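Subject: Protein record for review, amino acid sequence with backbone structure tokens
Category: Structural biology, sequence-to-fold work with a learned token vocabulary.
Format: Residues in single-letter code; tokens as whole numbers, each standing for a residue.
Body of memo: The sequence and its backbone structure tokens, given next.
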Amino acid sequence: MSLTRTVRKWYVLRTFSGHEKKVEEYLMREIERLGYDDKLSQIVIPTETVFEMRAGKKKTREKTSFPGYILIEALIDPYLKELISGAPSTIGFLGANGEPVPLRPDEVSRILGRMDEDQGEQPEIPFKTGDPVKVVDGPFNTFTGFVEEVYPDKMKVRVMVSIFGRKTPLELDYLQVEHEG
């Protein structure tokens, strides 16, 4: 066996979209059952945290960054390749003629680094002072106004709207307003 084959490499496995977790769980069970722990060290489903509004409340959830793809760090031999390729809900390895082609180290760093960054990173600030906005969620739905102040740490904005002819400040989540126009 050559020295380059003793180093685990990262490969991309194509799956049915939405079945990534099911494939990961199946492979982990089979790897443990067959004692291939020394050949397959990691299975990663690249995800990112997204914020959304549901029933007037801000919720966070994990979203798959690359639906239908999972990353596998392994020493691929014919038996392991067959086990992984034959898993339910898989399409096969990304590569030429069904042969797994390892990712370059810079590609792996970019994908895994992006996941690490996402864990502590706040989303970009979508508003600035003076922006015209429309309220799209909550009791003031459809009101329009202008951004008075932005609170990036809380992901909120203070919007000045006109209620019964009086200027009134509202503190709203980023997801409760959108740019008007």
About this structure: The longest strand covers residues 47-54.
